[in-house]
Known about the structure:
Layout: E1 2-6, H1 10-19, E2 26-31, E3 44-47, H2 52-62, E4 67-70, H3 77-90, E5 94-97, E6 110-113, H4 116-122, E7 129-133, E8 149-154, E9 166-170, H5 177-186, E10 191-195, H6 204-212, E11 216-219, E12 229-231, H7 234-245
Parallel strand pairs: 1-2, 1-4, 2-3, 4-5, 5-12, 6-11, 7-8, 7-10, 8-9, 10-11
Helix pairs in contact: 1-7, 2-3, 5-6
Amino acid sequence: MHVRILGGTTEARRLAELLHGVPGLRPTSSLAGRVASPRLPPGEVRVGGFGGVEGLAAWLREHAVDVLVDATHPFAGTISFHAAPAAAGARVPLIALRRPGWVPVAGDDWHEAGFLEQAAGLLPSLGRRVFLTTGRTGLAAFASLGDLWFLVRSVDAPEAPAPARMQVLLDRGPFTLQGERELLLRHRIDVVVTKDSGGSATAPKLTAAREAGVPVLVVRRPRVPDGVRVVAEPEEVVDWIGKRLHLPTFPDAD
Length: 254
């Protein structure tokens, strides 16, 4: 049974680990290739795009995929909206693995935006020294804000266009609460901008901002395509695959 995992996330790697070596299963992973040195999951890995909906559907048929798992980043919206019609066209069952989004707690000063350009429009009213953690590919939305100073954190070096007054911090999570506290203090940050990526690896910045009384501008995640089943944990995908494929034995997901 061929299980294709559209991955690149911690949850996708965990799912590949759970499925790797299970008799009767052939889990393979696909990465978009946007990160120079990704953390590779076990098993076969494919890097690169598929050529849109038709290309992905053809690939699923050609490689006899039995189950497609969309375990991409919550903000990798394009591939998710390609996966749904491609899976339907190839008659391949599809399930989406999405970590839960963040939820504000008492003391948080959160402001929401639907997309990066809207966040850029709101930003001047919230602060002047910005900790921008939305990734390297979306900096163009903030390039016109010449009066603001940005600390940009990303895994790889950002691409132009970008804000003129910018310091780049190349780093990869998980991050510690103490480290985030020190970062906000050292750079005199007065507003944090983040996507609602969810998970624990980058969540300490939210706690640090709350403690410091710093507002957080949160970009809401795009929706999952209609009709696609969504689960929050890799173990739930394991259980779903086992039932779907009627496997006699399956890994214990402790």
